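INFO  loader      accepted 1 record
INFO  loader      residues=372
INFO  predictor   begin
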Amino acid sequence: MTALHCPHGEACGACSFLGMGYSAQLLRKRRILRAAMQPYESLARYDIEECLPSPKIDAYRNRAKMAVAISKYREPDLGYFRPRSREIEDAPECRILEADILKTTRDLRRWLRDSRRVPKSLRHVDVRCGSTSGRQHLTMIFRSREMPDFALDQIRKACRKVDGISVHLNPSSGPQVIKGPIHHQWGEREVYVEVGELSLRVSPGSFFQVNLSILPRIHELMADFMGKGHTLADLYSGVGTHGFALQSRFKKVLAIEGQRSSVADAKATAKRFRVRHMTVVPKPVERALRPLRDADPDCVIMNPSRAGAREDVLGTLVASAASKIAYLSCDPQSLARDLDVLVGGGFEIASAQPIDMMPQTRQVEALVLLQR
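INFO  predictor   done
INFO  writer      dumping tokens
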């Protein structure tokens, strides 16, 4: 497959594999995962599967998190920070955004240019959709402690595919764009993502994978490996993406998540679809080890953040009766570190497979299936 071209590629730097053929990208990601695992004696003997390709290699991202620069001397910029810089690369032709999301960013750019009521404190916009790309939520992030005055009606008219708007106030200049409460302003409060027969609620502050096209294949791999059982533990469960996908195969599902909006979303989905055999524990996994032990799961899904799992969490899994673990990771280094503990505690790797969740970028997702 030929390489993808983007007019912003060189200046933007976010898609560092642009210009590389897709087969070469998949091979490179497989090598990155192998290089992360190779230094561990316990892992070096395992083969790495070929990288699972994404069904879509462009126009796949269901979320655009863009920085804003407003100046009275020139046109506004809406795009991404350049490498090792706080300069913004305006990106009206971003090739990895879903078409409807890209259109909304262009509509926002026009609003920024034409409106006289754009607060100078506007620093970022966050546009996301669920399975229906024409129904989007916009979160506007202001570097302010007080709610600014802005032209809500103008934004609604400019961005026809947006059916909900929220505001987040973040006076900090740090790298974390959203931290703390999000204030709903108008329209729909959430987007919805189809997972199997269910429609999962996803709030503006909740995490969700940015490439929905590859999720069904990930869940097929998990389901084929785990089969059916009594109790499934879904650790770092977010809005319940993986637990809901496999819930029909188990008599009980325990979902553990510490992020408030994700917990609320998971509970709302379970209530709406009457998934009565799922229990959602509203705590960080490391503070919910007792409920995890009491549940006595026979199968475990874990999808931690880039930092990976803490030692006490891994120790609890090693000491448990769980016979199978599906570990989905977004960081090969922390994944390899955690796999070393699990393999040292009696698990064997049945499959280690890189996944191309984010084509054109260096990001390497991986699904590792382990059994006793």
